[in-house]
Amino acid sequence: MPRQYWGQRWSAGHYLPSTFWRYRVNDYRFYGLGYPPAGTMWVHVDNHIYLIDQYDGYIIEVIYDAWNW
Question: In what helix (H) or strand (E) does residue 48 lie, and over which residues does it extend?
Fold first, then answer.
């Protein structure tokens, strides 16, 4: 993770920087996530999972502290 993003926490309505889009969650069912609608994808950053628009990174939904369920 680039240093300028350490400790950063985004919320729904913000845009996730494109540097994080590569951390895609492909096995979303393993994490108890729903199927991502067309044009969206799940990505994980630190301890959070974001549902983002795959074209511009707009954050639709956030699951904070995902690994502490």
Answer: strand 48-53
Looking at per-residue pLDDT, the higher value among 67 and 46 belongs to: 46
List the chain domain ranges. Answer: 3-68
Is 23:43 a contact under the CB 8 Å cutoff?
A: yes
Q: For residues 59 and 14, is the Cβ–Cβ distance under 8 A? A: yes
- Residue 36's nearest CA partner among 48, 20, 24 is 24
Euclidean distance between CA atoms 62 and 49, whole angstroms: 6
Q: Answer whether 0.85 is exceeded by the pTM.
A: yes
Which CATH architecture group holds 3-68?
A: Roll (3.10)
